[in-house]
Structure formats: C-alpha cells, structure tokens
C-alpha cells in the first residue's frame, strides 16, 4: 500500500489504546509500519530496484530483525534524551516496544500483500511472490477510516487542525482529478469528510474523554477490518468464478488474477493466463454478465528464441524476477536484427506503466545493447 495508508494504520492502532502500553508506544507503532520500506532508499538501477524491493525487509525474518533494531534505537533515545529531559518519567519497556514494533512491521507486510504488486513474505528463505489482489495500492476508503480515527483522537490544537485540513485537500485530489472515480464516490467522500468535521467540532477529544475516543476507535477499526476482509473474500470468489467461466469457454487456464481497481471494490481487472498467452477483461459484481473477457489473446512470446536470448541479460533477469505476467514484443531493428521489449500485463493499461528493458539483438541473436 501507499505510505499514507501505512502511517495511518500505525496511528490508528495507537489510538485504539496501544499508545498507553508503554512510553514511546506510538513511536514504535509508527516506525514499525514504515520501516520495511527502507529498502526503497537503497540506490539501485531501475530494474535491480524491482528485483530487490519488497524482499528482505518484507519477509518473515524482518518481523524479528527490524523490531530488534528499532527497539534498540528507541531505548537509546529513551535513556539519553527523553529521561534526561524528565528524570521522573516512566522508562519505556523493551519487551513491549519490541512487540509493538513487530506488530507494526507485520501490519505493513499484510497491507503490501493486499494489492496485486505483491510481497515476498518468505524472504530470505524463499523469494516467491505472494499476492492478495484485494485492494488497490491507493485506497481512499481505507484512508478515510484510518485517518478519521487519527483525526478524532489527536486534532486538539489549532495548528493540528490546519495540518489536517491541508492533508484532507491533498488526499482528496485523487478523488477529483482521476477519470476513474464516479460522481457518486466523490459525493460520498465529501459527505464523509463533512461528517468528521461535524463530529470533531461537536465533540472535541477532551470533551468525549479518552475512554470514549478509544471505544469509537476500536469500532471503526473493526469496520475497517470488515472492509478489508470483504474485499479479500470478494477477490477470492471472483477469481474462482472467472476461472470457471474461462474453462467453460475452452480456455486452458494456468492462472487467474482479478486485480483491484481504484475506488470501486465491486470491479476488477481480469487476467487469464494460458501456456503462451493472456486473456484480459473486466469483472463487475453488478454487471450482467459480471465478466467481460476479450476474445483476442495477447501472446506472451516468452518462448520465442529472440525473447529467450534477450531474457538472459542482467536487466531482463531483474525485471522477470519481479514480473508476475511477463510478455514480450519483438520488432525488427534497423540493422536487420531485433529489439525485444519486456512488459508485465498487470500494468499494460497504464500510461505510466512499469515496463521492462528493451534489448537489441543482431541477426545472430547476440546482444548489442540494453535500455
């Protein structure tokens, strides 16, 4: 998921009462839900970055290693900064900080699993990718629920209200600038934001009391969990129905994806993989029929000798280690050779799609250049 969703998930867990477990509990949760993305700070070239992202820092070993590192840093801060400023302050508890950070890291991994980009949960022992295909990488409804919890819990000062107003405007931009968002969704978004403002003005956190705020937060967290669970169940059911329909149409199915789309959880982007091609389409739970599958397949060309030769380059290997549904396009070059372009079907319809390298070969299929 996007960094906003990760950060709000940590703040929402803190608001649900975990912030009172130990001093620095909120810091442990917030750092925990963000720290796995530290792999994005490592400088790789474009394709090496794809091969390494969501790997070591997103696997099961990271649930232990990262909390150990974060807990150590928090304890140093607690001893040398926080308690030097206030010697009477209660010391942070190492075990509880570790568990809270581990919870944050686990939540990050779960959120990243939810979309169709995937995560390698078994690293460093196994580099297989796992995909939940349940939520789009940016989910405004999740922002609304988790952000609403945080807003109602901590928006007590005027400067905080100004910051929240700016954040609300920024997060609203995808809802109003994207052609993918229906007018009804925009109206619902504005009504929800208005409701949060009314609640905040009518019942400030200090007036409601911490216990009531905590109870409300837990209720909203349960609603958010039900929303995520419903999307997981819906994606699973849709995938099985698409597989059954494709088999009835005589398609020899190897794999099926019903990928989430922006804003609308009732729709999905369909990929049906066969041995040498892909069928693409759209799923709509309210449609009749719910599946619209294109009759013309997209050849993968991954068995083509030219694509196989191009796939031996380091850049292509890095891209293909990340790609879930790879395909190649081959064109004749100016020198009588070939140019092989690699792509992934998941992002074929996006203007700024993640694409692979272009490998130039001569007539003898020797590599001339890679871009």
Averaged pLDDT, please?
92
Percent of residues in β-strands: 5-15%
Count of separate DSSP helical elements:
12
The best one-word shape is: globular
Q: Can you give the helix content as a percent range?
A: 40-55%
Distance between the termini: 29 Å
Structural class: alpha+beta
What is the count of distinct domains?
A: 3
- N-to-C SSE series? HHHHHHHHHHEEEEEHHEEEE
Overall number of strands: 9
Stretches where pLDDT is under 50 for at least 5 consecutive residues are none
Largest sheet: 5 strands, antiparallel
Radius of gyration: 24 Å
Q: What topology emerges from the helices and strands here?
A:
Layout: H1 3-15, H2 25-34, H3 46-52, H4 62-85, H5 94-114, H6 140-154, H7 158-177, H8 183-202, H9 205-208, H10 210-248, E1 255-260, E2 267-273, E3 277-284, E4 291-293, E5 298-299, H11 305-310, H12 314-322, E6 326-332, E7 338-344, E8 355-361, E9 367-370
Antiparallel strand pairs: 1-2, 2-3, 3-4, 3-5, 6-7, 7-8, 8-9
Helix pairs in contact: 1-2, 1-5, 1-6, 2-4, 2-5, 3-12, 4-5, 6-7, 6-8, 6-10, 7-8
What does this 3D model show about the protein?
This protein has three domains: 3-229, no CATH class; 245-298; 300-370, no CATH class. The chain contains twelve helices and nine strands. The protein has helices at residues 3-15, 25-34, 46-52, 62-85, 94-114, 140-154, 158-177, 183-202, 205-208, 210-248, 305-310, 314-322; strands at 255-260, 267-273, 277-284, 291-293, 298-299, 326-332, 338-344, 355-361, 367-370. Strands 1, 2, 3, 4 and 5 form a five-stranded antiparallel sheet that branches. The protein has a four-stranded antiparallel sheet with strand order 6-7-8-9. The radius of gyration is 24 Å and the shape is globular. The model has no long low-confidence stretch (mean pLDDT 92).
